[in-house]
Amino acid sequence: QVQLVESGGGLVQAGGSLRLSCAASGLTFGSYAMGWFRQAPGKERELVACITIGGSTYYADSVKGRFAISRHNAKNTVYLQMNSLKPEDTAVYYCAASAVGRKSSWSGSDFGSWGQGTQVTVSS
After folding, report:
1. N or C: which end of the chain has fewer CB within 10 A?
2. What are the backbone dihedrals phi and psi of residue 38, each rounded to the nearest 5 degrees, phi first?
3. 37-51 tens-digit pLDDT
4. Rounded to 5°, angle at Cα 18 from 17 and 24
5. CA 71 to CA 60: how far, in whole Å?
6. More confidently predicted of 54 and 102
7. How far does CA 46 lie from the centroid of its chain?
8. How far does CA 2 lie from the centroid of its chain?
């Protein structure tokens, strides 16, 4: 059974930084693409960043240049470094795993396993 556990969320002032972690178990981690999604109140879930099994990355336009996704296969962990945070980054952030591995573009339907989410709140 795949389990994804996020950590690292919290309250931060605008301009600050947070680093989210997602520990995965129950899967061959190196064979899965990993993604971070977020959902703000009243808004649809959106893909924030994704990293393929080969290490290629994808970012939503709204976070390019501010967020960085990385993975440590030996630790079965994916990270999301978030810098220059803005109030509009406030959301629940979810980690997700995709057995697809590699694609040129991604959507939520590509991801079959999800974590419970961690709250990120950015104050102005």
Report:
1. N
2. -145, 155
3. 999 999 999 999 999
4. 155
5. 18
6. 54
7. 10
8. 16
The first and second tokens of residue 37, run together, are 């999604």
Amino acid type, 13: Q
Find tokens 């501010």 and name the residue.
Answer: 66
| Complete DSSP assignment for 26-92 | SS-GGGSEEEEEEE-TTS--EEEEEE-TT--EEE-TTTTTTEEEEEEGGGTEEEEEE-S--GGG-EE
Measured CA to CA, the distance from residue 50 to residue 57 in angstroms comes to: 6
Phi, psi of 54 (to 5 degrees): -90, -5
3-state secondary structure of 108: helix
End-to-end Cα distance, the chain: 40
In this predicted model, which residue has the larger pLDDT, 101 or 3?
A: 3
Q: Is residue 5 packed enough to be buried (19+ CB in 10 Å), middle (13-18) or exposed (0-12)?
A: middle
Q: Give the pLDDT confidence of 58-75 residue by residue, as tens digits.
A: 999 999 999 999 999 999
